[in-house]
Amino acid sequence: MAQAAAVAKPPAPPRRRRASATPRRLPYLLIAPAALLMLGFIAYPVLSVFYYSLRNYNPTKPWRNGWAGLDNFTQAFRHDPQFWDTLTFSAKWVVVEVGLQLLFGLALALIVNQTFVGRSLGRALVFSPWAVSGVLTSAIWVLLYNSQTGISRYLADLGLGSYGTSWLSDTSTVFPAAVVADLWRGVPFFAILILADLQSVSKDLYEAAEVDGASRLKQFWHITLPHLKDAIVLSTLLRAVWEFNNVDLLYTLTGGGPAGETTTLPLYIANTSVDAHNFGYASALTTVAFVILLFCSIVYLRLSKFGGDEK
């Protein structure tokens, strides 16, 4: 009987090995060192700026260092007219630069997207200024604006203007001169992003529009622009943040002058911290700039419905 029961009993199924969690965690473990380093390099400076914005901190005057609370912010909003002047100029600089760069970048992208002889060379020439650093761009345009050897001298030779004219030293010409210099470097950024998005537009849409009798203007308005919406929103947002934080070009080109006419808020912060050694107040101004950029970015993305479908 025992032997029959032993024969009748089915064999136990083999136990399945429990899947190890290590292979699933392996990718995260591999990127963890780099992620921690990036977090440290980003989080520590940001938190330190927030901390020092609540303190009086000047290494040259250690006896005045200590807790300040909101005094630095009160100083900025109530007792520092230069803060409002630089903030106003920063807004003007961003609107003018981003608007013109978008306009010219869109036009160049549409041109180099067409088929013509030498298109590859044309694209290389259009995109080449973006590879030049901001300081080198400033050096190039400082030479071009030089009153003795630059553009103004050749215009004076043609009878247009007078000799010795310095566009970077005149309050009436310094802003457009700085705008042109930054346009030369910023337009390729928009041209690159918009051209990349233009490559994905189906030609069937344009062919169908032509069959229906749509003009080039209507094709651009109803096909091209809606397709480029997300690319335009993203590029303008990125460029606006970069232009707001622009220090290298204006610092090298004009130094914020003449008479503070081209001093942006970040340049004012740099002068306050590096030249005046008032790191507490500079940190407070940096915090204000951060909040302004964050608020404007969120509002802009919500109003533009970035990433959403058009209804």
Task: Write the topology of this structure.
Elements: H1 2-8, H2 22-52, E1 55-56, E2 66-67, H3 71-79, H4 81-112, H5 119-127, H6 134-144, H7 151-157, H8 174-198, H9 203-211, H10 216-244, H11 248-253, H12 265-275, H13 279-304
Antiparallel strand pairs: 1-2
Gyration radius over CA? 29 Å
Average pLDDT, to the nearest integer? 85
The number of distinct helices, counting runs of at least 4 residues, comes to: 13
Strand content: under 5%
Instruction: Specify the oligomeric state.
Output: single chain
Shape: globular
The strand line-up of the biggest sheet is: 1-2
- N-to-C order of helices and strands: HHEEHHHHHHHHHHH
Structural class: mainly alpha
Low-confidence parts: none
Query: How many E strands?
Result: 2
- Could you give the distance between the termini? 79 Å
Helix content range = 55-70%
Describe the largest sheet.
Answer: 2 strands, antiparallel
